[in-house]
Amino acid sequence: MWLYVIPLFPDQASTVAKQVDALYFFLVGVSIFFATLIFLTVLSFAIKYRRRSETEQPQPIEGSLHLELFWTIIPLGIAMIVFFWGAKIYFTIFTPPADPLEIQVVGKQWMWKIQHPQGQREINELHVPMGRPVKLTLASEDVIHSFYIPAFRIKMDAVPGRYTTTWFEATEPGEYHLFCAEYCGTSHAGMIGRVVVMEPDRYEQWLSGPAKELPGMAGERLFQQLGCVTCHRDSAGQGPSLVGLFGKPVQLKSGETVVADENYLRESILNPRAKVVTGYPPIMPTFQGQVTEEELLQLIAYIKSLEGGNGMRTE
Ligand code: CUA
User: Are 138 and 100 in contact (CB under 8 A)?
Assistant: First the structure.
């Protein structure tokens, strides 16, 4: 295809890449069509209706309902096509499929730190299997960064103070650019890396590399070190039990109910009084400044791994 001959566009290496490009080409096509139409109309009218003599008087023109309807309904139709088409792709990009491979990404000045669920860590490199949805949870240690893989047509900000997520499914083995797409200081331009897409069996091989610690195991050690275990050991502790908590609704003192997701757990570690669980006193100290974003992700991985008695979670 001509796309590959003229390197105007990055490779199409994810399931959404072709969809995003199709919409993009449609928009470019519509723009070129109307720009040409308007240009030719201006040109031909300028010639056709030019003033031919000093005494020539123009004829007044009355409105035309048909003409008004014609140039209202057609643009509305085109705008609606673009809207629904774009919304469909937007929802695809923002809704990860069930059971993705979950990888954690922490942006900091000026590097990307990546942790795989099996414990592998990488800096400025991301190894992923082909043909499997990969969900990224992004955090930032300092300022806003933006995780951008042009070949996958995904870009998501890593924002200090909260988690963001995105996902992709790579379709072609190979190496692709990884950029930071948000100006983040002196070495922003150096905050680059590569994404390596591997055949599933090669990825398994890569995973079975040197021994490493699972994020949940690192989290468990932190859980002991920081003393979380004193209050959150089980239902008899001073704080609510964390067993089987992840993904479940939590009743708060304020009467609200929230779901115990990553952002809730993160907030409760750093700012425990923001959302106090009903029936418990607001006595938990903050751990702001004592844990890094990576350690927070490890703690959350550990809390996620604490299964409830109902066997709902299979991670
Ligand atoms: Cu990080 Cu730009």
Answer: no
Q: Ligand 1: does its nearest atom lie under 6 Å from the Cβ of 145?
A: yes
Cα distance between residue 48 and residue 59, in whole Å: 14
pLDDT digits (tens, 9 = 90+) for 26-35: 999 999 999 9
User: What DSSP string runs through 81-146?
Assistant: HHHHHHHHHHHHHHSPPSSPEEEEEEEETTEEEEE-TTS-EEESEEEEETTSEEEEEEEESSS-EE
- For the whole model, what pTM was predicted? 0.71
Which amino acid, residue 118? Q
The single-letter DSSP state of residue 283 is -
Q: List, for residues 269-298, the tens digit of each pLDDT value.
A: 888 888 888 878 787 878 887 888 888 888
**Residues 174, 203 contacting (CB under 8 angstroms):** no
Strands (DSSP E) along 192-296, which ranges? 193-198, 249-251, 257-259
pLDDT value at 57 more than 90: no
Q: Is residue 220 exposed (0-12), middle (13-18) or buried (19+ Cβ within 10 Å)?
A: buried
Strands (DSSP E) contained in the chain are 101-108, 111-115, 121-123, 125-129, 133-140, 145-149, 154-158, 164-169, 174-180, 193-198, 249-251, 257-259
Q: Whose CA is nearest to atom 1 of ligand 1?
A: 145
Among residues 13, 229, 18, 265, the alpha carbon closest in space to that of 137 is found at: 265
Is 4 a residue whose pLDDT tops 60?
no
CA of 174 from ligand 1 middle (Å) equals 24
Give the ligand 1 atom nearest the CA of 191.
1
Type and span of the H or E element at 310: none
Distance of CA 245 from the midpoint of ligand 1 (Å): 34
Give pLDDT tens digits for 106-136: 999 989 999 888 888 888 999 999 999 999 9
